[in-house]
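User: quick one
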Amino acid sequence: MNQAELSVGTRETDQFRPARSLRFLRRLLRRPVAVAAIVVIITIYGAGVLAPFIAPFDFDKTDLRNTFAGPSGEHWLGTDRLGRDVLSRLIWSAQTTVIISALVVVGGSLILGVSLGLTSGYLGGSVDNVIMRLADALYSVPTFLLILIINATMGDRVDSLFRDLEDLTGIGGLERSGAPNFFLLSVALSIFGWVGMARLVRSQVLSLREANFVLAARAMGGSTPRILFRHLFPQLTNLMVVAITLSLGAVALAEVSLTFLGLGVEDHASFGIMIAQYAGPTSVRAHPLLIFAPTVIVALLMLSFNLLGDALTDILSPRRR
Amino acid sequence: METRRLVLTLTGIAVALIVVLGGLTIALLATGGGDDDATSGDGATEDGDAEPTPQLPERVEGELRLFGADPITLDPACASDADSAEYIVEIFSGLVSFDRNLKVIPDIAQSYDVSPDGKVYTFHLRNNVIFHDGSRRVVADDFKFSIERALNPDTQSTVGEVYLDDIAGADEFIAGSATEVSGIKALNDDTLEITIKEPIVYFLDKLTYPTSYVVDRREVGDATCFEGADWTLSPNGTGPFKMKDWVLGERIELEANPGFHLDPKPSLQQVTYLLAGGSALVMYENDEIDITGVGVNDIDRIRDSNEPLNAEYQTGGTMDTSYIGFNTVEPPFDDVRVRQALAMATDRQLVSETVLKDLAIPATGVLPPGIPGYNENLEGLPFDPEAARALLDEAGGPALFEDVTLLTSGQGAAPSEALAAITALWEENLGVSIPIEQEEFGIFLRDIDQGNFTMFSLGWIADYPDPQNFLEIKLHSESADNETFYSNPEVDNLLNQARTSADEAERIRLYQEAEELIIEDAPWVPLFHGQYNALVKPYVNDFLLPPFVIPRLRYVSIER
Amino acid sequence: MQGLASYVLRRLLLVPLVLFVVSVVTFALGRYAPSDYVEIQAGPRARPETIERIREERGLNDPIYEQYARYVSNFVQGDFGESVRYRGVDVEDVILPRLWVTLQYNAVVLVLTFAIGIPVGTWAALRRGTWMDPFSIGTLVLFASVPVLVSVPLLQWLFAVKLGWLPTGGWHERNILGVEIGILSKQAILPIGALTLVGVAGIARYMRSQVLDVLDQDYVRTARAKGLNEAPVVIRHVVRNALLPIATLVAFDLAGLFTGALILETLLGIPGIGLYAFESISSRDYDSIMAIVLLGALVFQLAMLAVDIAYGFIDPRIRLSAEARR
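Assistant: Done. Structure below.
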């Protein structure tokens, strides 16, 4: 996986012009390719969100007398080695991707990235320096490797953390539900994922900092956080939408890749698990559908994110084409 | 300005170079396959069917090719895994060995006597065993060195004491209160005397394990399992094969040792193990390797008698048992009824048929087929979900399983499919939902050892074909390897008697009685016994599929 | 050039600092992991007391700063530790051959990507207005966005299983003039092909947009109006504009070498640095993990620095603004 894919914020995005409100959306919807991409993404992510309602079976519902079945009325895409419904597993895998994407985007990009970017850009000086150095450092390491290491080493500790949490709050079943695993994966991805958003936000803040309305707010005695959130923040919304869209694809791919290697999501359905289980040559030869199903969905998803990202970059960048 | 132009010009040249190089590279790649000649005579394409030329070094006369795994170490005193052992038993040798019928035969020791009290073994060594480099012959002192080295705490071996601490004086040596192992004496160059603490009858079996094999003290020096271990990359052994080349991660080449001291001497000239990736079965079908395993994706096809490959299919047992163990000293599994209920709700037959495609056989007892003492009439606990439910309700019902998880080792994203099927069936048949918890192997072993579990899944392969290796080591209350903390004085008694009894039939009877008691008590739910499922080329003769690691390559020959 | 020299110097000074931080974090992660190589390799019958003793003797119970200090002092003396995956082999003796494998096929991919991508992209740009333009964009985007994780199983199925043209995986090196070369074997075709598909698509799309940009420029239209051959003008401007990001891409490729190879090598069983990194993590081979991470970080930083210098050379505006930012 390309280093660049993992965090948004190459030199290109530094040159984004903030578009007026959400007008770019209208321009976006006029491009049929972008619309198609959006439809695909919404379908897949939507299926993930609605999984408990639309999936015909549970992701782990086995039926040992009906293994490796071909497509049928009951199982539209057939069943796997344990008789589990392939279509359902696809839908539940989409749910896993949605959850991780949401957690990383909210936790990493939004919370960490935006706040650090705002702070860095507005306060400047040594705070800015420290944060940007940190960003540089995080950006210059083999991120995928480090995420692998984090997942491989911290799993046990996160489990005991959740166990303590259970004892503390009296909420049972936290550890069993698989939450620690999702938590660790999201945190690991967020640690490296905030950089792009932060850089983006920061550069915009820098250019807006001396804008009139901000000076006015300061002259009237507005406090720093207030200025940050009431005045600068709204200006950034479209940029953030773009940045998030561009990074969603990378996060989804990261989740699938990590799970494929066994160091991502565990015990739930994931495209990575489906690919890992059925990817070898003898398996592909004997049961092609079992590998086609997840790979085609992942390919479609990545393709759509790419097309959408292209369209967005086209619309918002100062270059003509 | 000037610098800019310079840079731009240089860059232009660079781009042009790249384009040219690119063209060359493409041309090279396209013709790259032509260099290697197809050594199989029918390399020409017949009916347009793609017949790929092999892309590995040309075959040597009398070469066997198969897939292998990278060993962790080739130091006999340190190896604790089967992958390493597979190479070690071919490169090194010990006092005794297993032949292809799994009988203990003399190896470097030409003959041996046992004292009447069964505690003193006198080995008479051959005088013609030479190290691979031709420098000198093996003498009794070399064995004393090698065995003491394996036991020496400075060597930092985790297996030395496991296989060799029956020797008298070993404990003192390990503790540091003795500078040598008093039980090993090199009486002269040709005679080695080993005294053991107790007259155990399977001592020779334990000596067949690599830990006691002889190494060249001049090569090894004071190397430990971790420091100075680079001698293992080109080891000077005494086995039927020598190390010819080891390209880490890619291949291992072994070549025959014509001076080997046992008959039959190796007939193969070279054995090549491929360590890198690729599909073994596909390569086998393309005549690139001579032996492959068969997995669940192809076994149906291979078993079909209409399939041409069916003629090359071989199968055999692997003398192992996979099982689920309970923590018998903590609730809920301190109650024998709960254990029995789970055992009776385990539908091994169905899982074996559907998930495993009969690649393994359902297990009723602890001992696998092939081991002396295996009881094919053992009834054990039947699969009876209704009785199981009744039993469970009597003991307290499914509510007992609230905090129960099935611990297993692994680092995949999903646990083994067989286990997933078994737990799913428990839910169906018994109404209990037991989640599977995966832990990394090191942590898993630690948790097992500390009793930090309710139930776990594990397997055990025979080290040597004796029921003691299963029943006593895993289920005697004083055994260090008894993970389930199972303790039944009656069973202990039977096992103690069997350990030292000299009457073979009596031993078998005792072990079988113990096994019946154990199965009834259900500290284990035995799941499956493994099998080898392999395809062997018709021109390969006598390729053994042994149930555990034994030297086998010297029996193999190729007829082409 | 004065500003540039001091800028480079400042950047170079940062490199060891970042490496230090990275080394501390990676080391801590490794040592705080709940298990270690002694436990993992001890075998099922090893006694816990023995395992504990060996761990103690090998310094695994020492306080972490002591272990780290030991590691650093060895490191600066050129001792990068020994692999535990392959006992007795120095870390550099395992890593370098693996690195060589990964470098080989990535180098070929790089060359092919540009050799094919540049002409294809240019050709697509020149076909603007015809049906071939959106068609080519479509195929290119498809190839560019399908990740290796998805494309390799499918390619493997098609070329190795169905058609039988290629091996299913693995790697074989031949000795050519004293150098072990693996890229001339058939095993190299599938990985090189899979990566090139993605790379070519990316470059081609980029070249296409560059050429289109230039074609629209006034000076080109002027040349055309005057009846002059527009080719040299186009080429010169395309080269100048395209240079920078291509340099960036090369640098990114180099930098991502370590991690990008991982999935590909796992799927095809290629003994490269990516697969070894994964194996090291699984077997808690601390020394190998440290060496790989540090090496990767170093390469990445140097690559980024090279890009920044190139930027500075070629476009003074960026250099000045970059300096202003610091």
